[in-house]
Amino acid sequence: MRRLFKFLLLLLFFPSLFAIAESRPLKILSHDRPPFHFTDSKGEVVGICVDIIDIIDIIFDEMELEYEVIDLIPNALNM
User: Fold this and answer.
1) Which has more pLDDT, 61 or 29?
2) Separation of alpha carbons 33 and 36, rounded Å
């Protein structure tokens, strides 16, 4: 959670870091890891990270930048 907070601070205070991001979308990797990010019994993705992605969505829309959320399979992460 602390890392995510630091990342959000970088987004807000260092917009020059996004000069590179203008040419291609930022890729955000995720995987099921309750309670942060998981699929519930209805098949919807829920958790704390989903709320943070909503905040990132607002920030990126304001800055007119693109991002892509990629769900990884736990086996691909050697978990």
Assistant:
1) 61
2) 6
